[in-house]
Amino acid sequence: MADEPVFTYKQCLVIRTDIAMSCGKRCAQAAHASIGAYEHADKTLKKAWYAEGQKKVVLKASDERTLHELKVFAERAGIASSLITDAGMTEIPPGTITALGLGPAKSTDLDRITGNLPLL
Fold first, then answer.
1. Which of 15, 37, 76, 95: disulfide with 82, CB 3.0–4.6 Å?
2. Per-residue b/e over 16-52, b at no fewer than 16 CB within 10 Å?
3. Residue 70: CB partners within 8 Å, gap ≥ 6?
4. In sequence order, what are the beta bridge partners of 105?
């Protein structure tokens, strides 16, 4: 049997579960969060994460406040972040905060911030 791959880097995409969004809408918000955080990340981290396979983990947040708190913790740790505000063109009102992207960053650093959140 082959050994499990070891990922030193990852992205965490955190989606609110207290607002009604279809599966497709949640996927789109996660994609926005991924790209947004990636654009703010350090060039060296981006290259290392990309070379390793671009691991992403999608997590649940119970409310908007949780997203804001996670963003503050990430910023204090020097981790790139992107808070997603929906334009309101489809399912939810404009201005609704739906998701947060974190990283790419070292997995251990992200685990300290998001390790208590359940998988989506």
1. 37
2. bbebebeeebbebbbebbbebbbeebeeebbeebeee
3. 14, 61, 81, 100, 102, 113, 114
4. 10
Q: Mean pLDDT, to the nearest integer, of 17-46?
A: 97
**What's the order of all strands across the beta sheet hosting 81-85?**
56-61, 9-16, 97-106, 81-85
Is the entire prediction scored with pTM above 0.70?
yes
Domains along the chain? 9-114 (3.40.1490.10)
Instruction: Please list the residues that pair with 56 across neighbouring strands.
Output: 11
pLDDT at 1 over 80: no
Is residue 98 within 8 A of residue 29, CB to CB? The reply is: yes
* β-pairing verdict for 9-16 and 81-85: unpaired
Summarize pLDDT for 79-104 with one digit per residue, the tens: 999 999 999 999 999 999 999 999 99
Q: Is the dihedral of CA 87, 91, 95, 96 positive or negative?
A: negative
